[in-house]
Amino acid sequence: MDKRKVKIGILLGTTRLGRQSEKVYKYISELLEHKFSEEVEIFLFDIRFLFSQFDKNNFSFNKEAIEKYQDFIKKIDGLILISPEYNHSFPGELKMVLDLEYQIYRNKPVIVVGVSSGPIGGARMCESLIPVLRTIGFRVYQYDILFPNINNYNFEDSREEERLLKQLKDFIHTIN
Ligand SMILES: Cc1cc2nc3c(=O)[nH]c(=O)nc-3n(C[C@H](O)[C@H](O)[C@H](O)COP(=O)(O)O)c2cc1C
Fold first, then answer.
1. Tell me, what DSSP letter sits at residue 86?
2. Which of 37, 94, 120, 171 is a good FRET partner for 5, with 20 to 30 A between their CA atoms?
């Protein structure tokens, strides 16, 4: 009998115009698709979708858009959350999205991926985001993944790719 594939969600946590984090979002999804297609099924969610459906009259997200987000979280076994560092923290719009829900996050494994144009790769953002993720119920993986110097990041570097694959593999294996 076929082993059930692990359902992995990848969430892009910024809406900023010109966001570099989108490169990481695409890179990780392609990497998982190429290297783990046997064991992983991928689901993508870009929080721009929710903001494109913002109901200005009611100062809230449109109901159907919220349901799509909830369905995304509910169906996945684990989440890869990609966020840039803005003033040592994570984007306000990501907080708005995370605050939409509590129950469906309970014990959901999550790994945080930091992105920054600086040399520390969003490590301070991780320090700020992780307590929030724990508060709303996520089970946060022990290590974070960091993408420093994103404007000059070499996505072709095979040693970096190997390191990343090892981290992702370990995260995926902790889910089962
Ligand atoms: C409002 C704002 C605040 C920022 N603060 C930081 C910071 O505290 N530390 C840092 O390393 N980079 C900081 N950056 C630069 C980001 O690391 C940079 O924009 C990077 O490309 C990742 O974010 P992006 O996906 O929005 O492009 C900041 C960028 C913005 C727009």
1. B
2. 94
